[in-house]
Structures are given as C-alpha cells and as structure tokens.
Amino acid sequence: MMIKLIASDLDETLLGPGSRVVEENLRAIKKCQELGIKFVPATGRGFYSLRQTLEELGQADQAGQYTICYNGGAVFENKGPRLISFTGMDGDLVEEIFKRGQELGLGMHIYTEDQVYGYQLTQEEIDFCQGRADFAALPGGDLTALRASGARFAKILYVDTNFPRLKKLRKDLADFEKVSEMSFSSNRYLEFNPPKVNKGTGLKKLCQELGYQLDETMAIGDSFNDLAMIKAAGTGVGVANVSPEMRADCDKITEKTFDQGAVAEAIGRWVLPDCE
Known about the structure:
- The structure is a single chain.
- This protein is of the alpha/beta class.
- Helix content is 30%, strand content 22%.
- Strands 8-7-6-9-11-10 form a six-stranded mixed sheet.
- A hairpin with a 3-residue loop joins strand 10 and strand 11.
- The mean pLDDT is 96.
C-alpha cells in the first residue's frame, strides 16, 4: 500500500550534529512533499521548542503541515499553531512523581502545554539539550506556583546518564507504571506521560484528523518512546542505531545511523519506489 504519511522521531533519528536535519534527509523529504506525502515530526518535545527544525523542513507556520508533540500528548497543525488534541497529565500525579524524583536526587524536566522547566540539571545536561530545549526556571523550586497558576502539565521525566541504573529505577517505580505511560528516550531519560498516551496514539489521532488509514503510514525511530508508533504504523522502521531490544518489533531496519541520513534511506528504499 502506498505511504501517505511518514512520522519521524527527531533526536537520534532525523537530526544530526548540532540538532540539524541531515542534508540527505532534507532532499528526500522534499521529494515526498512534492508527491503530496506528508512528513510529520513526532517528538517528546513541546511544539514551541521546534521552530528551528520546522523552518529547516519548510513547515513552520504552514497550513496542512502537522507535528506530534509530548510523545503523542498533543497534535498540532503548524499554521497558527492550531491545537488538534491535547491530553494533559493529572497534577497530583505529576506532583507525586516530582517529589519521588526529589527524594532520589534526580534532575527533571517538567513540561507544561507551552513551556519546559528544568529542576537540578547539571551543566552537562544543559549542554546536551542545547538546540533541543530552552529551560525556564522552576518558580519557587517546586510545583506549587505552577499548579496555582492553572498550568496544564504534559509530561515529566527523570534524567540519568547511567542507562542500566535508569532501567532498574523503572522496575523500582512499578507503582507509576499502573497510572502513567512510562518509556525511555535517548538512553538517559525515564519519561512519564498520561495513561495510554504515546506516539502511537498521537499518530492514530492525526490519521483520524486527516482521514488516513494506519496502513498508509510509516513511522521511523530509534528509542523506546518511539516503539508504540513503530508498532502502530503500517511500516515501522528502526534506524541502524535503534535500541537493540526494539529491533524485533521493527518491520525494517536501515543500514545508516541517524547522522548518516537514515530517514533518507528509509524513504528511498520503502516509500519512493511505490510512487514510480
């Protein structure tokens, strides 16, 4: 079946050095756009941190172009932007996860509908996020002021560059698994989203908006927060640097890594031939 929509993760999938879209990927995406195939960034980030990437793709403030954010918690049409769907996270749950993170001495990212706040982040973490997130100071050092302001929470995540330790932590926090959607990203984050919210549900909501079938989509990613999307799409693609535990769940695996033009390879091998 011909692909009508490609949903792609950003970090360690579409973006290369300096958080820029690799040139080979840009050329392939342009071919898709000329053929009427939609290319949709699907990210854990908030919409307002994506300006650089959307401008590189020629999609910034464009009608008929879409973005999946907060790991599927929000879907936007880029013009405006127009919020198509938003699933917020219960404030009491965010508070509980935040306090547990404090007890564990972890750095955290706290996402609201339009901002990301940093808590106890190291300089290394701030440098790693350069070009990916602009952190605001957490007012008062906790969530009290944000909650009083009526802020809508999108997600919260823990930071730990020791990935085996992070995986053990997830097992230790099994109580949160029952009340949130937990996943890993970039081998340094343990993410908490609202229950049953993931990039797969975001892709389904966008397909409903556009009248597309999931069989008409391709999803490309590298990490565990991409897995639901990869499994939901008609064709699920892991880039060469995909997490080893996910490889069996991918329909296809590229030979190239994210910084070598993996997205362009996926488009060239499994999308464009069906358009000829």
